[in-house]
Write a structure and sequence with these properties.
The structure holds 2 protein chains of 2 kinds. By secondary structure, chain A is an all-alpha fold. Chain A has 4 helices and no strands. The termini of chain A are far apart. Chain B contains 8 helices and 2 strands. Classes of the chains: A mainly alpha, B mainly alpha.
Chain lengths: 179, 287
């Protein structure tokens, strides 16, 4: 190390190194210019555009991530809204069905009552009609029976019966026959 | 494995027979040689121009039509730039990397390109034998020479870094910060201890200044030595065997030189980045 230092401190050491390795001012300057040229070329045509596009891509990725988060939030909100709407629709539907059932039951009851009332009316009418017919037939039978009694009495007795006789005989006969 | 099994015995046979073949080889000169008597153009400058041209062509092809969805060369260029950027960012931090990447990126890609171009067959070996005025052999002049096998190129890069290094250090931590980095006692001392430590740290500061001054020289010679040594190794190995077999002994070393080319580009870049980081570290503490 000391010999190196000694050699380096000799007055012609730099000249020796320059001569040995060909260190030359003009060549050094030329190579330095070449190096600056490389710096310029790479900075302008490589590092600049590439770093710009990398930055642009990084920004787009960040924006994309933010958008994705926003979309996910919107989707979650939308799903929640949809679920709420579905739940509300279900609730409404159940309520409507229940109301419809209640309405149908009431209507059915009403119709049943009406049918019963109508049936009762029909029965009453039929009964009234039956009673009327029976009364009429009974009256006719009584009249016919009276006429037959009067005719039989007239033929048996050989006497012409008056209206009063006929009436009396009819009444007696009917009172014995009963209703 | 089969490839190595074939290559290695042949290579050792070549080495064994090399003693007889010595003498006919031509060594790559230590210094870059001018191709013209009047213009300051050396064979390594021509090689650097070729490297610049290739870099321009690659950049235009890769970044001519940039798209957000990268394909082909753009994809490769983005991968390379982003990888180096991340590597430096881990080393120097985001602020320094953003500020200085243009320089470190250039250093790395240029050294890498130049180193690999120097491995192309013909570089350093195709040229003509020189003769002096008496008609005697006066050396060999290759038409092309690896850019980094020229001390002028490596020194140009190293001293450019040295200037930028000082500039970045001053702008980051100021003149006071720089002086403090160099001379201030490391640690906390009080009273008599401080008085005793001041001259020691002043001496350490002088050593630090010498160290800073030597670093660009060391950077220059480290890169030059590795690349020149690699080329010289390849040439010497090729000269060990008959010409028709010259490719064979050098072949394994071509793979090693591919690795060396990458490693040296990385080492140069890494050392520059570390030097800058170390000198700016105090500034980060204050900011």
């Amino acid at each position: 190390m000391f010999s190196f230092l000694a050699a380096a401190t000799q007055p012609n050491a730099l000249e020796t190194i320059k001569d040995t390795f060909g260190l030359h001012g003009a060549f050094f300057a030329a190579q330095a210019i070449n190096f600056f040229l490389v710096i310029f070329v790479l900075k302008k045509f490589a590092f600049g555009p590439i770093q710009a596009i990398l930055e642009q891509r990084r920004t787009r990725i960040v924006e994309g991530e933010e958008k994705l988060k926003r979309i996910e939030k919107q989707l979650a909100d939308s799903e929640a809204t949809t679920a709420a709407a579905i739940a509300k629709a279900n609730e409404d539907a159940l309520r409507l069905v229940a109301e419809a059932r209640e309405g149908a039951a009431a209507f059915s009851e009403q119709k049943s009552q009406e049918a019963i009332a109508q049936a009762q009316q029909i029965l009453a009418k039929a009964e009234a009609a039956g009673n009327a017919d029976r009364e009429r037939i009974s009256t006719e039978l009584k009249r016919e029976f009276g006429r037959l009694i009067a005719a039989t009495t007239s033929q048996v007795t050989g006497k012409v019966l008056t209206l009063e006789d006929q009436q009396r005989i009819n009444e007696e006969a009917l009172s014995k026959v009963g209703n | 494995m089969r490839f190595l099994a074939i290559i290695l015995p042949v290579w050792f046979l070549c080495l064994a027979s090399a003693h007889g073949a010595a003498g006919g080889d031509h060594a790559l000169p230590l210094n870059a040689q001018p191709l013209h008597d009047f213009l300051p153009i050396t064979n390594s400058i021509v090689m650097v121009w070729i490297a610049v041209g290739l870099i321009v062509l690659f950049c235009r092809a890769a970044t001519g039509k940039m798209s957000l969805v990268p394909v082909g060369l753009q994809n490769f260029a983005e991968w390379a730039v982003e990888s180096l950027y991340s590597f430096l960012e881990n080393l120097m931090g985001p602020h320094l990397t953003k500020r200085t990447f243009w320089f470190f990126g250039t250093i790395f890609f240029f050294i890498l390109t130049s180193n690999y171009l120097g491995l192309i067959p013909g570089v350093g070996t195709v040229g003509w034998n020189l003769k002096d005025s008496a008609g005697q052999a006066a050396g060999f002049l290759p038409i092309l020479r690896g850019g980094n096998a020229d001390i002028n190129m490596t020194a140009a890069m190293a001293f450019t870094f040295a200037l930028l290094w000082i500039y970045w250090a001053v702008t980051e931590i100021g003149f006071g910060g720089l002086a403090k980095h160099i001379f201030a006692p490391k640690g906390s001392f009080n009273g008599i201890m401080l008085a005793m430590m001041v001259p020691i740290f002043l001496f350490v500061g002088v050593l630090e200044i010498i160290s800073i001054a030597i670093r660009p020289v060391a950077l220059s010679f480290r890169l030059f030595g590795n690349i020149y040594g690699g080329e010289q190794t390849l040439e010497k190995l090729m000269a060990l065997v008959p010409e028709w077999l010259a490719f064979l002994p050098a072949l394994p070393f071509y793979f090693m030189e591919l690795l060396v080319g990458f490693v040296q580009a990385l080492v140069f870049t890494l050392l520059c980045a570390i030097f800058l980081k170390l000198i700016c570290d105090h500034g980060d503490e204050h900011h």
